[in-house]
Write a structure and sequence with these properties.
The chain is mainly α and 457 residues long. Helix content is 77%, strand content 2%. The chain has one domain: Up-down Bundle (Growth Hormone, Chain: A), CATH 1.20.1250.20. It is globular. 54% of the residues are buried.
Length: 457
């Protein structure tokens, strides 16, 4: 294959816009899935089990789709069918999810008898699984598109632009409803926010698919591999050879495992921490309608504050994404990543020890430095070991070490929090949601220690 041409700023922006839409949808799912499912009767532990959709689809869907995209032959390219297909199906599920109660009512009218009270929660859980599966369908091939179209020396910068898109997409997704509330006194409904996410995902991904051209078909890659005497691997060969690429690959995977244990402790539980710890709302899953109504304003305020914090968190990610890529090119991925992880440790410890909303908002911004690095540098560290023609398989397998840790968070950490209960008065209880940040800080320290052992040429 001829040398790839260097990307300019406009090409990087076109490339990143699809990830902007993807992250927009993912951020809305992160912020609002807790309040939606809790309102349908999900306890902390059940909420964690519903979150298993992400890791299970990530461990199964991304590796398989990544391998399929390596071998796909179509007039639209290898990766683009998965990018656009995943976005369109996810957009439909994003519209259905917040309307699960209405869907359950319509199902009752169709079948002609009363369904179990948990039917609406089951519909919501299924939609979360569809959303997460489709995001994974798009995400693996998207990461694999980088070595397909971007020169090796620009991989760190390409991943930094993805971090920029992740930051900006999350800022807009998280900040839209609070912005309208505080400046125009208009509270955007939850269904409207999910429709906004669906449009951002589908239109953003369509733009990237139209503006970014894949340079090779699968047949051309097979031909290049034959000339170089390289055997085309099956998926299972790719899985076996993944860890044989270099001893450093295993270290990078272990680093990702601990990193995402920590990251998911924050992403999964922050909105509940905001509502129940910072704004003092007790657990309402079994509360009476009177109690629910009494805390209605506090729930809305806690949810909006969570959105603001996520907006600040991702705004910092957006602002430092490109500087982190530039610093990594100058000082090495390893050094920059360790410093970023340690900054996130300090932020987590601070949030576990304070209930002051001003401090928490500041600490979430500080944690955004680590998030910018997490979204970029591990992928840049791995990319140098990828064999041509296996990009999708490698990125899909690598995602196992992002998705796998989430299983522990969704089960063990969720179970632990469900056991850390205290009396909230008037016959109600609450949970120590802040404990998730202490667990996350320990995992980040372990990730930084593993990163220190990685050889960064």
């Amino acid at each position: 294959m001829s040398d790839l041409k260097k990307f300019g700023t406009l090409q990087f922006l076109n490339f990143a816009l699809g990830f902007f839409g993807l992250q927009f949808a993912w951020q809305m799912r992160i912020i609002l899935s807790g309040p939606v499912t809790e309102n349908l009767g999900a306890s902390p532990f059940l909420y964690g089990l519903i979150w298993l959709a992400g890791p299970f689809t990530g461990m199964v869907v991304q590796p398989l789709v990544g391998a399929l995209s390596d071998k796909t032959v179509s007039r639209f390219g290898r990766r683009r069918p998965y990018l656009l297909g995943g976005a369109l199906i996810a957009s439909l599920a994003l519209w259905i999810f917040p309307n699960s109660q209405h869907v359950a009512i319509q199902l009752e009218s169709v079948v002609g008898f009363d369904l179990p009270i948990w039917t609406a929660l089951l519909v919501a859980a299924i939609m979360i699984w569809v959303i997460d599966a489709c995001i994974n369908v798009a995400q693996g091939p998207y990461r694999a598109l980088i070595p397909d179209v971007v020169p090796q020396e620009q991989h760190a910068m390409a991943n930094s632009y993805i971090s920029l898109a992740i930051g900006l997409g999350s800022v807009v997704a998280a900040g839209a409803a609070p912005f309208l509330k505080y400046f125009f006194n208009f509270q955007m409904s939850v269904p409207a926010q999910f429709i906004m996410a669906a449009l951002a995902f589908s239109l953003g991904m369509l733009w990237t698919c139209v503006t970014i051209k894949e340079h090779q078909t699968h047949k051309e890659i097979v031909k290049d591999a034959a000339v170089a005497n390289i055997k085309e691997d099956s998926f299972w060969d790719s899985l076996k050879n993944f860890f044989l690429m270099s001893p450093e690959v295993s270290k990078i995977c272990l680093m990702q495992f601990f990193t995402w244990m920590s990251t998911m402790c924050m992403l999964i539980f922050f909105t509940q921490y905001s509502i129940h710890t910072l704004f003092g709302v007790p657990d309402l899953t079994t509360a009476s309608e009177t109690a629910r109504h009494a805390f209605e304003d506090a729930v809305v305020n806690g949810t909006n504050f969570s959105s603001i914090c996520f907006a600040i968190f991702n705004l910092v990610c957006f602002l430092v994404a490109i500087p982190i890529g530039a610093l990594a090119q100058k000082f090495g991925n390893k050094r920059v990543h360790i410093i970023a992880l340690l900054s996130m440790v300090l932020a987590y410890l601070g949030m576990a020890m304070t209930a002051n909303t001003v401090y928490v908002a500041f600490l979430m911004g500080f944690a955004g430095i680590g998030w910018a690095s997490i979204c970029a540098l591990p992928f840049a560290m791995l990319s140098k070991y990828i064999k041509k023609g296996t990009e999708g398989s490698v990125m899909g397998i690598f995602n196992i070490f992002i998705a796998g840790p989430q299983v522990f968070v969704c089960t063990l950490v969720a179970w632990f929090i469900s056991k850390c209960v205290f009396d909230a008065g008037e016959g109600l209880v609450n949970y120590h949601w802040e404990y998730a940040f202490l667990i996350g800080a320990v995992c980040l320290l372990l990730a930084a220690l593993v990163t220190k052992t990685v050889k960064d040429d």
